Amino acid sequence: MSRLRVAIQKSGRLSDRSLGVLKRCGLRFAHSKDKLFWFGQDFPVDLLLVRDDDIPRMLLDGVCELGIVGENIAREVMLERNGGTGLTCLRKLGFGQCRLSLAVPEDLEIGSLQELQGKRVATSYPALTRALLGEQGVTVQAVELSGSVEIAPGLGTADAISDLVSTGSTLRANHLRELEVLFRSQAALYSPSTPLPDEKQQLLDRLLARLEGVLQAAE
Ligand code: PRT
Ligand code: ZN
């Protein structure tokens, strides 16, 4: 009997909502605390709880068939690893909304993205930032940082940042000004773009039909 594996974030901004939407699809899991693998009861879908950054790679490597992750991370990993392809967004889930924005120090007199040509931009999303700026004809030096991106201009290690923003309070606290929104993101259900065996595809179709019902009821 075929089973599907879904990877979700173990603990973070997307965890509760990810688990919640799967439960509302009627999935039940047997699990013990701190275990990273939750066995699906009633319906043959199991859960893997991991760092969000690992989810796109796990899908590309065939470790699981489904994953819930921010579009920002899915796009970054696809660009980094796979020429921008390899994962299919099956359904946007309506939570985890944020934007990837280019921000500059408040006192820097800069009015357009074009003025950032050749400048250093600190970001946790170097491939996505380069691609989005490239679409606008702007080439920058991406300075990759895994966290605390917003302090880079103050430290003098970058001229600007490209970072996720939701309320904007982190930017304000660091005297940064949002110059332009590069990309709007939310949590989405992804699968590898390669076809699944028939039995798994049938399971996936059943799950997607339930998901559609759940999401439409919530709208
Ligand atoms: O441990 P793990 O690697 O799994 O988690 P993580 O710490 O990398 O990720 P987490 O839980 O912080 O975020 C998971 C996902 O939530 C992101 O990939 C986005 O898709 C989504 N999301 C939504 C956000 C935000 N909103 C957000 N505001 N991710 C991060 N932020 C950060 C942002 O980087 C900045 O530092 O919040 C700060 C800005 O918030 P405001 O409200 O001050 O603008
Ligand atoms: Zn992460």
From TrEMBL:
List its EC numbers.
2.4.2.17
Q: Which GO terms describe its cellular component?
A: cytoplasm
Localization recorded for this chain is: Cytoplasm
Report the catalytic activity.
Answer: 1-(5-phospho-beta-D-ribosyl)-ATP + diphosphate = 5-phospho-alpha-D-ribose 1-diphosphate + ATP
Report the residue ranges that make up the ATP phosphoribosyltransferase catalytic domain in this protein: 51-212
Q: Which cofactor does it need?
A: Mg(2+)
* Record keywords, A-Z: Amino-acid biosynthesis, ATP-binding, Cytoplasm, Glycosyltransferase, Histidine biosynthesis, Magnesium, Metal-binding, Nucleotide-binding, Transferase
Q: Name one GO biological process term.
A: L-histidine biosynthetic process
Q: Does the keyword Electron transport apply?
A: no
Q: Does the keyword Protease apply?
A: no
Principal localization reads cytoplasm
This entry's Gene Ontology molecular function terms read: ATP binding; ATP phosphoribosyltransferase activity; magnesium ion binding
Activity regulation reads: Feedback inhibited by histidine.
Q: In which pathway does it act?
A: Amino-acid biosynthesis; L-histidine biosynthesis; L-histidine from 5-phospho-alpha-D-ribose 1-diphosphate: step 1/9
Membership in a protein family: Belongs to the ATP phosphoribosyltransferase family. Long subfamily.
Free-text function comment from the UniProt entry:
Catalyzes the condensation of ATP and 5-phosphoribose 1-diphosphate to form N'-(5'-phosphoribosyl)-ATP (PR-ATP). Has a crucial role in the pathway because the rate of histidine biosynthesis seems to be controlled primarily by regulation of HisG enzymatic activity.
This one is known as ATP phosphoribosyltransferase
Q: What is the lineage of its organism?
A: Bacteria, Pseudomonadati, Pseudomonadota, Gammaproteobacteria, Chromatiales
What gene name is listed for this protein? hisG
